[in-house]
């Protein structure tokens, strides 16, 4: 009865479903000079087509999440904010061991006590009582432990696609002096040489095309030492917040000064703390804004304070229509009409903000390795696109403009 009463009281704490997170932007008609009526009509149709594309991206995002949950009901479910997370588990922070008694008496059980090495964070993983959904359990546990920070173990998704395999061709770039770079993603294939890889998920490290492409772009853009934290492996609930936090801690501990993350997900208190702890140790975190379109909620970790948020442009320096958004956008880089390597070492065509992000990270690492202020260095290189000055489409400008992969 106690857990039922808590559940009823907690309903007011539950957020709106996932569909309610969509707020479609109103796209303004581009300014024009004197024009005939048919020209204005063509512009109006172009605007309408753009609006339809934005709406489709928003619907596709919802359908993707729904399909993921339906296909993996034993592993994944939606949290109180309608975001996918590991099923039946919650992460509890800011609570002493002896203060868990109210939760234990209500049917929650401790799965493990976790330390995020390298970042000084600790937490407790608890299982949800039988009969409660993850969202219901979040509300109930918040009432039982009012001083604790309680989050789901939210999943994060790779922000790019590899179009096709092309003929293999060897290529390399001179790295010069570059600060060590860490990468949170899938593992690389054997043809992509990295300094070190460690797994933080079931079956990890396990080669992935996405991780291999990101690493190959890092290296081609001039990054030197690259370490990889594989947060996916073969786990269907891979890319979760706990794995990412642990991966980030390991990379910091191993000396990475720049960490690139081409993954997107919802805001998560554990990962936010991990990012903040890494930043306090002098680490620059660079992250993609995702490919869910401008109507999607702000992407994380790109939207955490101080994170360098990266969007993408195509070969004609046009913003990708599918590019997501961040609360504060920093830079754009090539994210279409570029090439990298897959897990087999084959040359492939890439598209997505995933692949713009390592290009910016490599630039940050190069500036840091040369003892320069990285922000000033990137600002000097950045090509102003769109309206004059920083904007919410291209950020502070396009960097690594000639980086088209290899």
How is this structure best described in words?
Helix content is 30%, strand content 22%. It is built from nine helices and 17 strands. The strands form four sheets. Strands 9-10-8-11-13-14-15 form a seven-stranded parallel beta sheet, sandwiched between helices. Strands 1, 2, 3, 4 and 5 form a five-stranded antiparallel beta sheet that branches. A hairpin with a 4-residue loop joins strand 3 and strand 4. It is globular, with a radius of gyration of 22 Å. The termini are far apart. It comes from Qipengyuania citrea. Keywords: Hydrolase, Protease, Serine protease, Signal. This is S8 family serine peptidase. Pfam families: Peptidase_S8.
Largest pleated sheet = 7 strands, parallel
Helix content: 25-40%
Indicate the low-confidence ranges by residue numbers. 1-30, 164-175
Radius of gyration: 22 Å
Structural class: alpha/beta
Task: Please count the beta strands (DSSP E, at least 2 residues each).
Answer: 17
């Amino acid at each position: 009865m106690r857990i039922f009463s808590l559940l009823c009281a907690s309903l007011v704490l539950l957020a709106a479903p996932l569909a309610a997170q969509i707020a479609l932007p109103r796209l303004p008609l581009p300014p024009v000079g004197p024009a005939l009526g048919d020209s204005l009509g063509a512009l109006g149709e172009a605007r309408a087509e753009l609006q339809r594309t934005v709406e489709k991206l928003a619907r596709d995002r919802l359908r993707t999440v729904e399909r993921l949950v339906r296909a993996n009901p034993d592993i994944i479910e939606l949290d109180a904010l309608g975001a996918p997370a590991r099923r039946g588990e919650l992460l509890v922070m800011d609570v002493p061991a002896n203060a868990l008694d109210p939760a234990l008496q209500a049917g929650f059980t401790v799965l493990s006590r976790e330390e995020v090495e390298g970042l000084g964070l600790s937490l407790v993983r608890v299982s949800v009582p039988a009969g409660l959904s993850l969202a219901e359990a979040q509300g109930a546990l918040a009432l039982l432990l009012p001083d604790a920070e309680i989050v789901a173990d939210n999943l994060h998704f790779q922000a790019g696609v590899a179009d096709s395999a092309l003929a293999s061709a060897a290529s390399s770039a001179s790295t010069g002096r570059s600060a060590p770079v860490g990468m949170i993603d899938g593992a690389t294939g054997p043809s992509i040489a990295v300094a070190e890889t460690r797994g933080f998920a079931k079956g990890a490290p396990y080669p992935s095309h996405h991780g291999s492409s990101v690493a190959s772009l890092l290296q081609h853009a001039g990054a030197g030492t690259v370490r990889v934290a594989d947060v996916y492996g073969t786990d269907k609930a891979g890319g979760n917040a706990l794995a990412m936090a642990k991966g980030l801690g390991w990379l910091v501990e191993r000396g990475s000064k720049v960490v690139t993350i081409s993954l997107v997900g919802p805001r998560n208190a554990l990962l936010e703390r991990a990012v903040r702890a890494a930043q306090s140790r002098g680490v620059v975190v660079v992250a993609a804004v995702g490919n869910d379109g401008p109507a999607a909620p702000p992407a994380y970790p790109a939207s955490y304070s101080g994170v360098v948020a990266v969007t993408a442009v195509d070969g004609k320096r046009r913003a990708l229509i599918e590019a997501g958004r961040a609360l504060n956008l920093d830079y754009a880089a090539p994210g279409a009409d570029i090439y990298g390597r897959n897990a087999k070492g084959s040359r492939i065509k890439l598209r997505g903000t995933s692949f713009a992000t390592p290009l910016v990270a490599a630039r940050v690492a190069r500036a840091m390795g040369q003892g320069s202020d990285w922000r000033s260095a990137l600002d000097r290189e950045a090509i102003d696109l769109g309206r004059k000055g920083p904007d919410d489409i291209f950020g502070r400008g396009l960097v690594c403009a000639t980086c088209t992969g290899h």
